[in-house]
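Input (Transcription regulator PadR N-terminal domain-containing protein):
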Amino acid sequence: MVRHSPLALAVLSMLTESPMHPYRMQQLIKARGKDEVINVGQRNSLYQTIDRLLRGDLIAIRETERDGAFPERTVYEITEAGRDTGRLWLREQLAQPAREFPAFPAALSFLPLLSPDDVCRQLETRIGALEQELIRFDEGTNEATEMQVPRLFLLEGELVRARLVVELDWVRSVVTDLKAGTLTWSQEWIDEIAQRFTLPAGEYKYRLAQPVAKKEAKS
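Output:
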């Protein structure tokens, strides 16, 4: 079973259009702006993905071509199994939210490692970066609108922009609370909280089991 990924789905999608070599796939993904949602920056990752799809019989080698001074390029084509698998992956990713582990929420879970002032400074820097990213997205959207690109091919950009706006508003609110002192912490307070929520292993297990026992008693 081939492990699916956004890049694997992109390869199958590209080859559904026509046979092509990896460099052409990478260029098309970038030209269409799909590199905003698909990590295709490292060509080695693309070749590894192609190799997995090839071993899984989802794609096949069509031919090897040489174009002037360029080195030989292997042209790939999709198989019937690849077409079916691509549709299956797409349906799954559209219908089922994936449990993802982005870096920013993970970083937020360890804020006590820094002081409130330090966190505030870092988040203010993030606000600036998010604002610039939003400007860049809007410029791309305006360009696509002028080119009359159909909305069907811009939907992923709409979602990315919506998430940017939500994150930007939320980070701004956190910075406001940090500056007002309504969100703050100290080492003494952290030590107190740690003591309050640290229980012996046996007692912790018992407390977790209590609600289950009560529910069973009622049935």
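The chain has a mean pLDDT of 88.
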